[in-house]
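Two proteins, back to back. First:
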Amino acid sequence: MKRPVFPRRGKDMTRLETFADAAFAFAAAMLAISIDEVPSSYGELMVALQGAPAFAASMAIIFVFWYAHQRWSDRFGLEDLTTSLLTFGLIMLVMIYVYPLKIMMQGGFSFFTNGALHSEFKVESLHQFRVLVTLYSLGFFLLCGVIAALYGHAWRQRLALHMPDVEAFDTAAEGISWLVVAMFGLLVIALVWLLPESAAQF
């Protein structure tokens, strides 16, 4: 069964979308493999390239939220105060989230490759690890929450947007879906603090 095709209300690029795209692009640049300096030797190049998998995984996460916002903007075309505030909130969270995201991805790839993929960030205690995972998961929860709030706002504007019942239902369902995904962030926070050290690292 095909999903119904809904109208595109945001056909023209707005200043808000342009600003959001630029902010996401800057966040992606901050994830760059070697942002400080170009490798000056073969050894430095190999070390820098070890960050490529973590960079790709981090970019994929950033892309998910960029695409979610772009798809929402294209579908609803809203640019009121609530939309602006939620979009600014999304941008602010993305800019803060970049470093925990990159650190977690580097640490994850280093852990699962037994150190073959180098991680520059060193965690010296279980407490530090738990705090880092909490920051990462809280950021994920809040980002998903903002996307859910955008869909909730669009649903509240369903009469002004002349939504048919099927589109109003789909909009509400999309917002709820993002809330469900957001709950995984809270679940991870609970697990990392409640599980013993031997299990918490997973």
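And the second protein:
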Amino acid sequence: FIVIYTRTGGCNREEYEEWLKSNHERLRGLGERERRDALREARSRLFGEGAADEIWASEQNNQAISDALAAIDARPDATTGDRLAQYKESLQDTYQENTDTFLQNHRQEVLDRFLALHSVQQELSSLPLAGRSAALRDVRKGLGLDDAALARWDALDHERDNRWEVGRKYMAERTALAKQYSGEALEAHIQELRSRYFGAEAPTIANEEASGFFRFDRPRTYGLN
């Protein structure tokens, strides 16, 4: 538990750090909600409830948004548009008059957390290319991106789609080669394949594969990679 303290008395801070050390193992053994409750009780006792809320406001706000995202993700029949509307309401409820400032400073993080939701990715993956592009644009526009930023994201999405399509074809051919060849012969054919698909980046791909990492076997997270 790493905390940065501001405007707090040294005594309270030292007592809290000592409490964290002596309760470290107990806290590790608690569930997430029980651990949060125990931390909140200790902070309120040592610093006072109002001061504790001020000191840990950022952490508490972040947790509120995490809880909201979990609830949004769990909605069984909601569309991405429904989820986005609920997300924006949660941001407003959490940050209130500071919502616009928070979004200006953390817009990419806010966007990424929403797009990373399993439910959102499920819907995006089910859409045809044009529908997915439109859905991504709607999400980004809904979270405040201007036309210039939207155009840049459209271009990046197009570049990523092309790259993943190249990767899909490469992996399919690589798998076929592995069924025909082995040993040095296989490596020679794969080396030629990498060069054909990736050009100057082929050595980077080769180093990744030598370490056991196959980038195009990763799950695709639309809007993020």
